[in-house]
């Protein structure tokens, strides 16, 4: 079987298209590259959707934590503490068994016990909490002069937020937010190890890498392949976020703008 | 455990709960809480040592050594840490067995990777096939600790590398002008001063380390996640004196609360420590303390 056939058979295996049975023998490099790559579809699905939806909740939570209303303030602070203070792994387990308990109550909860929705909700809330804290920090360091200038121009309320506060907040938060995006994509690998079943062996990249490591008892091939895919993904994220950063700072003079000084932390 | 627990079927309410929560298996989950604490107590210092080695080799003047250090720091950034956990546990195990194999059975002809199996001679197996259960468990735990130390050592190396560069350069130049050599400057000037710069990063790392402990479950150690799944699953009256439905949700809720409390306590302690360390330092925070006192 040539490599093209393998790609045709297993390229979209993780979403249920192509050959049903996973390879039973050979475990060639081509098979490993194709299947692990096909698993990346799920990592990207979880990461992109959670990031896009989490962004809005994160803004809301950051505003809530910075607000003067004590109820909103406490609620947002607790939300952030709850999701930042506990391991994501335990959050996945808890959510899965919670949905499992709710399932007999109403068929409405059926899709929640499968990874594509249940795990997505956990990731959405988790990233909203982490980015909410980042945005809150940025909101606190918006220069006082910017707000005063806006006041002097007669802006207030929504238009001041939309045109001055929010863009400045994003500009300040962007390097840290890039970091959060990278870690969110890394966190997506936990999904299929935390209770959520991989239905019909449709799993993510780590699920297949683990499958090959178990079958061949040789970790030195599948895990470096996984690492290769993730390094490419990380580089993609960095360049994409760099482009957005350039747009955010387009009003600045060329020499000040420079490149995004990514203070890339290794830890979340 | 209690004297009234002889016939659980006749109990109800609080008494039933008291007996249920003190069964032998529940003692195992409480012990596994200590496994987590033990892991943290061993991993934190060993990760710090790995980190220190990584950071000092990254700033070494000898290029190959500094490449190794920088690669060690950089590699964990692009790849999910859970992949490292899964990788190192098997890789380290095979490495140890292979080394023992080379030493103990030098006249072994066959290949080590035979098709889809990893085969070493019997006396090179780790732990030995006839070893008691506790040896197997300890060996597993040891591998897990080593894996944690390697992965978190890379994180710590990054923090310490940054802290070493944050120490004001004048301090090092002054030391050199006093006639100290490289080694003396490193040990007498750089290392004592870098900790206050490293502490914010290290406390962040401690939080991440706490939150990584449930991953022990993936490394095959019988930890709290394992026991929560075991004990929480529904039990019928045939197999246990304490039948109940699917309670796994509540067990994981308890774990969630345990971790939240743990994080909160760590936060408070680390804040106190930072306050102590910044006292009298020539940094913004130290200056603020001085002004507040005056």
UniProtKB/TrEMBL annotation, chain A:
Protein name: Amino acid ABC transporter permease
GO CC, any one term: ATP-binding cassette (ABC) transporter complex
A Pfam cross-reference name: BPD_transp_1
GO-annotated molecular function: transmembrane transporter activity
Topology class, membrane: Multi-pass membrane protein
Recorded family membership: Belongs to the binding-protein-dependent transport system permease family. HisMQ subfamily.
Origin organism lineage: Bacteria, Pseudomonadati, Pseudomonadota, Alphaproteobacteria, Rhodobacterales
Record has Cell inner membrane as a keyword: yes
Keywords: Cell inner membrane, Cell membrane, Membrane, Transmembrane, Transmembrane helix, Transport
From TrEMBL, chain B:
Cellular compartments per GO CC: plasma membrane
Domain ABC transmembrane type-1: 29-270
GO biological process, one term: transmembrane transport
Pfam families hit by this protein: BPD_transp_1
Main subcellular location of this protein, as a coarse class: membrane
Subcellular location: Cell membrane
Transmembrane segments: 27-50, 71-92, 139-164, 185-209, 249-270
Keywords: Membrane, Transmembrane, Transmembrane helix, Transport
Protein name (record): ABC transporter permease
PANTHER family tied to this protein: ARGININE ABC TRANSPORTER PERMEASE PROTEIN ARTQ, CATIONIC AMINO ACID TRANSPORTER, MEMBRANE COMPONENT
Similarity field: Belongs to the binding-protein-dependent transport system permease family.
CDD domains named in the record: TM_PBP2
InterPro entries the UniProt entry points to: ABC_transp_permease_HisMQ (IPR051613), MetI-like (IPR000515), MetI-like_sf (IPR035906)
SUPFAM superfamilies noted in UniProt: MetI-like
Topology in membrane: Multi-pass membrane protein
């Amino acid at each position: 079987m040539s490599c093209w056939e393998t790609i045709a058979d297993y390229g979209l295996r993780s979403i249920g298209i192509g050959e049903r049975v996973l390879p039973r023998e050979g475990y060639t490099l081509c098979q490993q590259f194709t299947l692990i790559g096909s698993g990346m579809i799920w990592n990207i699905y979880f990461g992109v959707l959670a990031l896009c939806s989490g962004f809005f909740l994160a803004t809301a939570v950051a505003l809530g934590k910075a607000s003067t209303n004590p109820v909103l303030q406490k609620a947002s602070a607790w939300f952030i503490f709850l999701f930042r203070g506990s391991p994501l792994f335990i959050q996945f387990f808890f959510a899965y068994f919670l949905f499992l308990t709710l399932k007999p109550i109403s068929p409405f909860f059926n899709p929640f016990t499968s990874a594509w929705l249940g795990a997505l909700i956990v990731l959405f809330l988790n990233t909203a909490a982490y980015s909410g804290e980042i945005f809150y920090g940025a909101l606190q360091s918006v220069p006082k002069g910017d707000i005063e200038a806006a006041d002097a121009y007669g802006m207030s309320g929504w238009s001041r937020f939309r045109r001055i506060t929010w863009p400045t907040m994003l500009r300040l938060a962007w390097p840290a937010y890039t970091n959060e995006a990278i870690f969110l994509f890394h966190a997506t690998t936990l999904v299929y190890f935390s209770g959520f079943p991989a239905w019909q062996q449709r799993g993510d990249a780590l699920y297949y890498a683990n499958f090959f490591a178990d079958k061949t008892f040789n970790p030195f091939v599948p895990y470096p392949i996984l690492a290769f895919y993730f390094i490419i993904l990380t580089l993609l994220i960095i360049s994409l976020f760099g482009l957005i950063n350039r747009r955010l700072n387009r009003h600045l003079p060329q020499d000040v703008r420079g490149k995004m000084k990514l203070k890339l932390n290794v830890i979340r | 455990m209690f004297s009234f627990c002889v016939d659980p079927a006749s109990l109800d309410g609080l008494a039933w709960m008291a007996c249920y929560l003190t069964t032998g298996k529940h003692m195992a989950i409480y012990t596994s809480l200590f496994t987590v604490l033990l892991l943290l107590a061993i991993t934190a210092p060993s990760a710090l040592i790995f980190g220190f080695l990584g950071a000092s080799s990254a700033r070494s003047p000898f290029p190959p050594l500094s490449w190794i250090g920088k690669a060690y720091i950089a590699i964990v950034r692009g790849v999910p840490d859970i992949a490292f956990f899964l990788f190192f546990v098997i890789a380290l195990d095979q490495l140890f067995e292979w080394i023992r194999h080379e030493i103990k059975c030098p006249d072994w002809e066959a290949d080590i990777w035979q098709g889809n199996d990893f085969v070493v001679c019997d006396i090179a197996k780790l732990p030995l096939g006839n070893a008691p259960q506790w040896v197997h468990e300890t060996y597993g735990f040891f591998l897990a600790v080593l894996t944690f130390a390697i992965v978190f050592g890379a994180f710590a190396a990054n923090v310490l590398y940054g802290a070493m560069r944050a120490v004001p350069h004048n301090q090092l130049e002054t030391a050199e002008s006093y006639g100290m050599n490289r080694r003396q400057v490193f040990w007498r000037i750089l290392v004592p001063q870098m900790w206050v710069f490293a502490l914010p990063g290290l406390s962040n790392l401690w939080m991440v380390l706490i939150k990584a402990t449930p991953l022990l479950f993936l490394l095959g150690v019988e930890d709290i996640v394992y026991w929560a799944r075991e004990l929480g699953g529904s039990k019928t009256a045939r197999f246990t004196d304490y039948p109940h439905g699917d309670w796994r949700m509540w067990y994981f809720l308890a774990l969630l609360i345990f971790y939240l409390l743990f994080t909160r306590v760590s936060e408070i302690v680390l804040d106190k420590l930072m306050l102590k360390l910044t006292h009298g330092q020539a940094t913004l925070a130290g200056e603020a303390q001085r002004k507040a006192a005056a």
